Amino acid sequence: MKHLLGLKELSKEDIIKILNLAKDMKTILKSETKKTPHLQGYSVVTLFYENSTRTRTSFELAAKFMSANTTSISVQTSSVQKGESLLDTVKTLEALKTDVLIVRHSVSGVPHFIAKNCSFSVINAGDGMNEHPTQALLDMFTIRERLGTIEKLKIAIIGDILHSRVARSNIWGLSKFDNQITVFGPQTLIPPYIENFAKVASSLEEAVSGKDVVIDLRIQLERQKRGFITSKQEYYKFYGLNEDIMRYISGSTMIMHPGPVNRGVEISSEVMQLPNSTIEEQVTNGIAVRMAVLYLCTRKEGIYR
Amino acid sequence: MILIKNAQIVNSIHDKSEKTDILIVDDKIEKIGKNIEENPEKMIIIDASGKYVMPSFTDIHCHLREPGFEYKEDIKSGSRSAAAGGFTTICCMPNTNPPVDNRAMVAYIKYRAREVSPIEVLPVGAITKGLLGEELAEIGFMKDEGAIAISDDGKCVMNANLMRNALLYSKDFSIPVISHCEDTNLSEGGQINLGYVSTITGLRGIPREAESTIVARDILLAKETKAHIHITHVSTKESVELIKMAKEWGVNVTADTCPHYISLTEEEVLGFNTNAKVNPPLRTREDVEALIEGLKEGVIDCISTDHAPHHKDEKNVEFNLAASGTIGFETAFSVLLTYLVEKNRFDIGKIVELLNHNPRKIIGLSPNVIEEGKKANLVIVDLKKRWEVKEENIVSKSKNSAFLGKILTSYVETVIHNGKILKKDGVLNC
Ligand SMILES: [Zn+2]
């Protein structure tokens, strides 16, 4: 596997391979020394055009646990404004002998663009509204760990489907395993033709009832100004996982959230504390999954090479 | 003297002449007839056996980028690209730097074209000063200087009252108003058509209403003002329906669409292909069908290329930063033939209407016709030749074609403008 750009183009077999390897990686994480030599001598660079302490730290720890040399570049202001194009940056990274680039960007397709123009491996850490493949892989890993399978499940995704790369990656990934996916959110945040890939519920109650898994998405409060949502309070009342809605959710339903959580907007603190919630577990599993992906992207015998 | 032998002339829809010879003396067609005597010492003889001879083409919407953006294209390179595609009259849009919003700029374009262009270049003046959408430009002066239409193309005149005044004012000068219909509140931040592909790629979508609501607005303004509105680069089914309705109402409305809108769909951008990023965006199969029907019924009057050259560095970037537009001169005819005539949607004669009669009528010119005594403005096309669109074969300075890698059927082999051979047997010599 040279790059991980998205789950849309990844096969079922590739996904299983990553999840199986992540399981091994998790045992390493549980050990005291947390160090393997898998990436010794490799140069792993994180290039984040958007702030995300969480994802970046997770990737960096994953690389460090595997003995890679890591460097992080944050781009506060777009370098385009400084006159350097992304293509220039890519060429510089190449000259700096980068082996793996982990990139986050606010524009869909940027990791694909880089991959087309470079010789190193590219891992998509979130691109615009397109994909966040490692997040979906860690979600799938967490589901498989809890429920023993990622097949033939009833899964609901709640919230801002339109702008969510997490939702898209989850839909592409989970769809490959015969799962029944339902989405729900304000109509302004449901993208066109999503019914080709998922059932669109007409109420929150309908969306969550009888589900094995409920994936709750983060809402960007700036969306209020653009007319997508009205207020935090109203969002919480009609689209939030609050105590009222918990009546429709059984004790065995997993409640997931990619974080960081807006408490009292998408989900209540009480619901987060329930044993159904896997939010913290997801964070730990994220490292294991990213270790697996880094490993596969640097192996010649991998999926693509 | 040029003698074209064994020509099958296509002058209009129902015109299918027998094989004949055409003799060109100076800039005129001297004689059309069988077995015109050959004189190889005095004549250039072109054998057109198995090929068609048609009037050369007119494009009412293109971008030559001069002045200000000569690194993308200039009047000379753009004109040569047009000539290579069989266009001998082209109308260039005013969104240059500085923009063509006054008589001096119109004069400059005409002057430069006379100096460097092998074909006829007709400037389109701006509707508003600086293309800012705030004050009307001096439409009368620009018309006097040779502007054949006014347009703020690239931008929409969002102020409806100003657009209304532009329409009223343009009537005094009998000049059409070419409208780029885009409600920028609806299209803001959008990169591609809002629909299936925007959902699966996560690229921001532009809803179809961004175009059609302004089409509706402009039709209503033209209806009341009785002015001539020309809706350019129509891309949606709804726009076609609205224009059809307007024509039934008797509104003085004409419209064009471009080769890429009647052949390609939004799926071309899959894989983040920035060459397929155009504005308005490529739409769906349903829209493509509606546009073809619109052309068939005469709701859409003609084809324009919207030839929009950009530098490689402006396309090989992040999708949102990529410039919108595809070049179009060199593929226009072949695209129409490949996607419409070959697929039996149209007769070849319809192309004469779409690329000659109708566009010329819209800007007040009489059609090019292949008849004795008329100016020798014609092309010889090979309807059978198949070719691949490749960067290295493109004449334009820019290589940003949405058709790169596509195999097209038919080719503009020879181009003659006012008796001068601009291209012969596929080789450009202008
Ligand atoms: Zn335009």
Task: Tell me about this structure.
Chain B: Pfam families: DHOase. Chain B: It catalyses: (S)-dihydroorotate + H2O = N-carbamoyl-L-aspartate + H(+). Chain B: Zn(2+) 1 binds at residues 61, 63, 153, 306. The complex is a heterodimer of chains A (305) and B (430). Chain A is an alpha/beta fold. Chain A folds into two domains: 3-131 and 284-298, Rossmann fold; 133-278, Aspartate/ornithine carbamoyltransferase (Rossmann fold, 3-Layer(aba) Sandwich). Helix content of chain A is 38%, strand content 14%. Chain A contains eleven helices and nine strands. Chain A is globular and about 55 Å long. Chain A starts with 11 loop residues before the first helix and ends in an 8-residue tail after the last helix. Chain B is an alpha/beta fold and 430 residues long. Chain B folds into two domains: 2-53 and 372-385 and 408-428, Roll (Urease, subunit C, domain 1), CATH 2.30.40.10; 56-363, Metal-dependent hydrolases (TIM Barrel), CATH 3.20.20.140. In chain B, strands 1, 2, 3, 4, 5, 16, 17, 18 and 19 form a nine-stranded mixed beta sheet that branches. In chain B, strands 6-7-8-9-10-13-14-15 form an eight-stranded parallel beta sheet. In chain B, helix 2 packs parallel to helix 3 (139-145), helix 4 (160-171) crosses helix 7 (209-225) and helix 7 packs parallel to helix 8. At the A-B interface, helix 4 of A face helix 6 of B. Zinc ion is lined by residues 153-154, 180, 233 of chain B. Zinc ion binds at residues 153-154, 180, 233 of chain B.
